[in-house]
Amino acid sequence: MRGRSARAIPPWRTALRWVLARVGGALLVVWLVATIVFFALRSSGDPLEAILGGPGSQAGPEAVEAARREYGLDQPLVVQYLLQLWRVATLQLGDSYARRQPVADLIAEQLPGTLLLAALALAAAWALAVTGAIVSTSARGRIGAIVNATLRGIEIVATVMPGFWLGAVLILVFATSLGWFPATSQGSHPAGLVLPVLTLAVPIAGFLAQVSRDALLEADAAPFAVTARARGAGEPRVLLRHTLRHASLPALALSGWAFGNLLSGAVVVEVLFARPGLGRLLQDGALSRDVPLVIGAVTVVAVLYVAVVVLTDVVELFVDPRLRGPRPAALRAPDVAVGS
Amino acid sequence: MIRRLGVSGAIALAALAVLLLAIAWPGLVAPGDPLAISPAEGFRPPSAAHPFGTDESGRDILTRIVHGASASAGIGLAATALGIGLGLVLGFAAGLGPAWLDAALGRIIEVLFALPTLVMALLLVAVLGAGAGSSILAIGLATAPGYARILRSRVRGVARSDYVGYARLEGDGPLTLFRRHIAPNTLWPLVSTATLGIGQAIVWVSALSFLGLGSPPPSPEWGAMLNAGRVYISTGWWMTVFPGLAIVVTAVVLTVLGRRLAGAGR
Amino acid sequence: MPALVAGLTTALLLTGCAADAFDAPPTAEPIEGGTLVYATGDAEPTCLDPHVGGNYPQALISTQYLEPLVGRSPDGEILPWLATTWQASEDGLTWDLTLRDDVTFTDGTPFDAEAVKANIEHLKDPDTGSSTGWLAVQQIDTVEVVDATHVRFHLSTPKSALMEVLSQQWAAMQSPAGIARGKDENCLAPVGTGPFIVESWTPQDRVVLVRNDEYVPTNPQGHDGPAHVERVEWRFIPDAATRQAALASGEVHVIDNPLPADIAAWEGADQQHIDAPRPAASNRIELNSGQAPFDDVRVREAFIRAADPNPGIASLFHGTAERSYSVLSSVEPMRLSDESVFATDPERAAELLDEAGWTDEDGDGVREKDGAPLTVRFPVSTNQSTAAEQSLFEQIQANTGAVGFDVQLEPMDLSSWYGALAAHEYEAVSAPYTTVGPDVLRILYHSDGTIPAPSGYFANNAQLKDPELDALLESALATTDPAERADIYTQAQRIILDSYTVLPLYDQQNHFLTKGVTGVEPLTTISTPLLLNAQLLG
């Protein structure tokens, strides 16, 4: 309610409360995720096939019984759930049913590949978005209007482009027909990264571009920019010292959402380009009901997401001094209608 | 209001009309049986007889795309409706309720956000099995937190605004407040958000089909067609490109319309 | 626009790196050494030891580093490999084998009777979790080590098919010391006698195999010496289009599971197409005769008369798959093929359904009887059915729909598919089964096959319980005389075909495309590609 007086609260206490709230949130996330995954995978379909050697195996009776006992599948569901929760709480991610290797090892092996892809895609998306925003605000006159309209059109198309369609078309054009880039890749060979990174980056770039441009236009017309120009500052100086900072704020705030979107997209891109990674691990695990693997992987994803959101909040605080005080509603993260 | 839509908005509206017609009366737009197989005619490139070519079983792709509109757009619509419904409940509860409820729901919304859509959908489908129903549920649940968040902030903003304060001073009860002030100011902007959302939902539904988790065959759902056609992409590009185009164009049309509505409503 | 330009410029800058990577080698002579890259589209094995579980992806890769006791010629004749002679006793309960004395495993352990005993016991041990291999040695009670080169199997019941099933990759010989390391370690790198050695396994990426320079040429299909190539990279590329693109650009040399259209278009100087149908059973659709509506033989026959899969097979598979009219694969010498049983006749189908009491009262296109519609639930495993096959099922759905069947195709993941079968929630299903020899008929169609294992799994999806058939299949197992066996199996197949519970489609498709390499050939036992004789073209 407006008008309620604010007692002076020491800054360190606000910071501490904020950190605790975040950590609490993260723990809640992990718990809920583990629960959802556990019941999702166990309430229908039997993990036995995964344990007994994957697709195509035709198990003998003794092998099945031994597996049931070894994995505790003969105990009531609630007991299994509590055991699983205990394991997650004590950071024992366990062994994958299907691969018989520690889940932690599997995830550690596959995570860097996905993170590399996501980081490059985010950087590429940023680069594309900011470039597009700068160009469209700099362009003046008739040509400027056409450029602007074209860019807007491209942005809209980019945001709604299904990743797998774009990837398939890119492979068709650049790998199969022109042979410029390889269709498959792994590791960090630059040529092999171009198509997957592009496929991941385009939808995000579209959204970031729209948001950046709106912010840039606003900042461009704001009093401080007008004053700077009146004092004789050239365009590049105005851009770099003043407006860019403002333009990057909404895009920065969206980086958390973007990261989540990238992880979703990674599932598709990794399958399409045959790249090893967390996304492929997740899909394999979900389809073969490899409970420990999926719980571990999804938990890692959720924790990463929260970490990225916290990180962007911190960076926002640095970039925008206004946020260090009580937060005006206008500067909260822009509305994102759909999930990541 | 139509005037405020502008050129692009008008075009989008016209395209939407065609889409709605395709959903309601596909036989008018594309006479012919989308399920009629003709193995001898399989894998034909676009031609006069088949403007979008034929698929692997000889079915006309244009006819299938038109008849698939109700499946794809329908699922997208249903998923968005579910998402908005849930979002409404969560958002209003958080926005209008006591502070502790707001905090608790805020946490839950954050948690739901932390699970990427596709991952959540994968899990749900693992439980419920693949199909239209699971797709709707999965996408609905995944998009609900987004709507909840928007609604919550709007509701809070309106509830704390001056004119609501004055109305309360004048003695308006909570129900009247809701009916007269809060609802209209929060729900109208939702229309544009929803339009955007339907476009996104259609893309998500087709992504689920790509992973093999969508409508069962022989449904001409666009995502399923895209998934089936992608296997043949090097020899039959039309089987992938046209359904993909249908998805993109529909989503673009809805996005443009949504944007224009947002602008018009302001 | 600028964004696009920036993107393209970056792309062009990077092509310098890309262009070097894959200049296609000119038509050239075979060379020694080098690295051969194989890209598989099958599921990645969860364990490289084929004793554990026992599926085809494991057979594919273990062909390069493990060898079985015996081989099999294309005519079905058993060939010596690690074992040189074999003899069954009069009553069929004892088998004596003579082993080679000049073979060692790549970890130095000698291959001898003790090793054979350790392997058979490993297969039978429940902790191993073997399924296919376990079935092969199920009848072996004990293994007796007579001396270093002589081993004796004591069976609980006669099994004339013993040598056939011992030729499978899932019963191949591993080093006892290797097995003794424990399952976890042995799964990562099993130790065998084969032409290659497992060096490393990067999950979801590749397995690296290096040449066994001490390889003793025992393979009946091998040349006189160790492998030509130095290294094999076994890459996992599940997406068919991506795999094909990798082959075309020269990133990989051999792929499996190619798309039919790509097979049909594949020709060129350094390019080869290998067609190696898998042995044992053909690819069939089975109708569940254990419950309505297919408990009525007339309804089954009606379905088969209406299905008309031939035009679909011709167009979807681009001529790479030939229609089969037999339950057994075309590489099985004892198969019986009868086209007349499966003649397409939609009018006859309609007549049969009318006779059986199924009519379309309400005119919705689906027949009913006593209020129940003529529904056929058809769960489809997306892991095991290729895109072309799934499209074929759609066509069969449309064709049988024309006479009043309501076929409901249900694509699902493997776990759910097994679940649906175990719960009898199907009327039609296509379930591939890979082993060696006509004894597969016993596994698939003997009434014992309807009894579920503890996991709920059963192999007899047709739910055939015919005492006459049972007797024939059992006697075939006890008969060692080849001519008599062939005759019994012919009679058995006659019964199976005439029961209208099976609609054979084609052989289990097993195609390989190669580029830039020569000497890749299918192993005659289970049709996996053998890289022992392969040479890169440089």
Notes on the protein architecture:
The complex is a heterotrimer of chains A (340), B (266) and C (538). Chain A has helices spanning 11-42, 48-51, 61-70, 77-89, 103-138, 141-160, 163-177, 190-221, 223-230, 235-272, 278-287, 291-319. In chain A, helix 5 (103-138) runs antiparallel to helix 10 (235-272) and helix 9 packs across helix 10 (235-272). Chain A contains twelve helices and no strands. In chain B, helix 8 (174-210) packs antiparallel against helix 10 (238-265). The longest helix of chain B has 37 residues, at 174-210. The model of chain B has no long low-confidence stretch (mean pLDDT 80). Chain C has 17 helices and 24 strands. The two termini of chain C are 44 Å apart. The B-C interface holds B 35-37, 39-40, 42-43, 56-58, 126, 129-130, 212, 216-218, 228, 230-236 and C 240-241, 244-245, 259, 261-262, 265, 311-312, 314-316, 382, 387-388, 390-391, 393-395, 397-399, 408-413, 416.
Largest interface: A-C, 72 and 73 residues
Overall average pLDDT of chain B? 80
Content-based structural category of chain B: mainly alpha
How many β strands of chain B by DSSP? 0
Unreliable spans of chain A: 1-6, 53-57, 326-340
Structural class by secondary-structure content of chain A = mainly alpha
Strand fraction of chain A: under 5%
CA radius of gyration of chain B: 22 Å
Count of DSSP H/I helices of chain B: 10
* Outline of chain B: elongated
- Silhouette of chain A: flat
Topology:
The complex is a heterotrimer of chains A (340), B (266) and C (538).
Chain A (H helix, E strand, L loop, with lengths): L10 H32 L5 H4 L9 H10 L6 H13 L13 H36 L2 H20 L2 H15 L12 H32 L1 H8 L4 H38 L5 H10 L3 H29 L21
Chain B lengths: L5 H19 L1 H4 L31 H36 L2 H16 L2 H12 L3 H28 L2 H8 L4 H37 L11 H9 L7 H28 L1
Chain C lengths: L1 H20 L13 E6 L15 H7 L7 E3 L5 E3 L2 E6 L5 E6 L13 H12 L7 H5 L3 E8 L2 E6 L6 H5 L9 H5 L2 H6 L7 E7 L3 E6 L19 E6 L3 H10 L4 E3 L3 H5 L6 E5 L7 E5 L9 H11 L2 H7 L29 H10 L12 E2 L2 E2 L1 E7 L5 H15 L4 E7 L1 H9 L5 E2 L10 H6 L21 H12 L3 H17 L3 E5 L4 E5 L1 E2 L2 E2 L6 E2 L4 E2 L2
Parallel strand pairs in C: 1-10, 1-11, 16-17
Antiparallel strand pairs in C: 2-3, 4-5, 5-7, 6-7, 8-9, 9-10, 11-20, 12-20, 13-18, 13-19, 14-15, 21-24, 22-23
